[in-house]
Design brief:
The protein is of the alpha+beta class and 181 residues long. It has 5 helices and 9 strands, in the order αααααβββββββββ. The protein has a 6-stranded antiparallel β-sheet with strand order 1-2-3-9-4-7, with no helix packed on it. A 3-stranded antiparallel β-sheet has the order 6-5-8, with no helix packed on it.
Length: 181
């Protein structure tokens, strides 16, 4: 509940600043009972009251509500975002928070006879590794056949796409840097 999170944050900051509830109440012209109710999540302050409290605690509303979290290290299959394109190709975004990273890894399952949409030139590089089947990589005016166990890397400054090169699905691990959305 939001009131409980606000109350806990106020209590933590008050303790960090070495203040009692009475001292915080006196500095904010509130009652000790109100501060106690806030810290227990039993009431919610108005925005102006909360602003007064956090300023007395040496911070501001922006810092008060910012959450420093440890970055997620392991991503499970249930964390993936999956999408199917108009050709039936299945794309799994393997890192849900890629926009906050410098790389974007995806897994692409290409159906026979299909391609991804042509990607326009952009900043960065792209890397691929074929896990199953084979793919045709189009990079600028060139086309390359990339088979299971082969990889590729290129600057993304030319139009590019991949397509299935066989009669069965192809599975490709694709990594872009920086992520493109």
């Amino acid at each position: 509940m939001i009131e409980e999170r606000i109350g806990k944050r106020i209590r933590d900051l008050r303790n960090k600043n070495g203040l009692t509830q009475e001292e915080l109440a006196a500095r904010t012209e509130l009652t000790k009972g109100f501060i106690s109710q806030l810290e227990r999540g039993q009431t919610a302050p108005s925005v102006s009251t909360l602003q007064d409290i956090v300023e007395c605690l040496g911070t501001n509303l922006s810092e008060f509500f910012s959450e420093e979290r440890e970055p997620q290290i392991v991503y499970r299959k249930e964390d993936y975002f999956e999408n199917e394109d108009r050709n039936g190709n299945v794309i799994d975004w393997l890192v849900a928070s890629a926009q906050s990273r410098s790389i974007e890894p995806i897994l692409i399952r290409l159906r026979p006879g299909t391609t991804t949409e042509l990607d326009k030139p952009h900043d960065g590089e792209e890397f691929g590794y074929v896990l199953e089947g084979s793919v045709k990589l189009t990079y600028g005016e060139q086309t390359y056949t990339v088979r299971k166990g082969d990889s590729f890397i290129y600057p993304a400054n030319k139009p590019h796409c991949v397509g299935s090169a066989g009669r069965r699905d192809a599975l490709l691990l694709w990594v872009s840097t920086p992520p493109s959305f």
